[in-house]
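User: Study the chain.
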Amino acid sequence: MGNAAHPLPLADIRVVELGSLIAGPFTGRILGDFGAEVIKVEPPDRPDPLRMWGERLEGHGLFWPIQARNKKCITLNLREPKGQDLFRQLLPHVDVVVENFRPGTLEKWNLGYEAMSAVNPGLILVRTSGFGQTGPYKDRAGFGSIGEAMGGIRYVTGHPDRPPVRTGISIGDSLAGLYAAIGCLVALHERSRSGRGQVVDTALYEAVFGVMESIIPEYGLLGHIRERSGNILPGVAPSNIYATADGSWIAIGANADTVFRRLCAAMGRPELAEDERFATHIARGEHQEELDDLIESWTKTRTCEELLEMLAQSGVPAGRIYNARDMFHDPHYRARDMILEVDHPVFGRFPMPGVVPKLSRTPGKVRHPGPPALGEHNRDIYEGLLGLSPSAVDTLKSEGII
């Protein structure tokens, strides 16, 4: 995993991460996982609230060590002119600035893209906000939950006889962070040809909307509005979750004709594959509820483990509905380094999700968890990178700039 012969793929990139919580820092996390030097900036008087998110142990939030992993944490008060001047001193040493403030915030601090690029023309500014940097809604406050609502995913999530629901994670923020990371890498690639930086503008609602499949042509051409459908996709069958004899739930996806035949054989009901109600994709969709009832009447006679073994041997996609305990003890997760244990100065061995995606020659790596101390790397950056004297750094601290 990243050595002298094969350094991490982004090891020559330096990123300054502004902002807080999930969307912008998620972008920084991805870049850091693949070797970028990510310098996270927090106001000295307003630490990132994510430090206290998630369940807490010994007063520390358990999300922060994951989201801030591989990052160097410094403090800097950008609301003060002296802090803004110090930030400008960083810019010649930086490839990327990541931020997720409301549009206009950087400009209010005299740190908009024009001002930054005047110092460093190759700089890439990655901006994530609720509604983007332009348009009639740009000045509105926007959290991931609002992006999920306006991007469409909330409307189609849940059961048809109940109000829309959210997923159990901040999916809108994470999607925006992913799109912003993609945009950043695209801009870095383009810069290798032009030598020029640019702005990457990601909106939370657009990141959600970008994964909403064909809902727009369905409405624009057919007048059809996709509705909530619970655990199924209407017309795609069988693809559902089914109760098992031991009180678990198993997901089975056998909607392709050939896979459905294999499922029928595993059930001991090969004749179902020839039944006119189920023989084709369209027919199965038209008799979806009836088919699901037949399948569940079978799954309820066996334990989840028995079903998983039978379906694996038959080549039918299936999986237990996992909770954290299932993931933690699953051998496949461990074999693919998807649960890593890293040394943490407070918690000792700290388990966290591994790096995605996997690269064959230069894979990413978790080098350290998120630093628990506020401004832990101030001297490393201000003295080591900018060349300030220790007394100058002490003065900045006494003045509340760092």
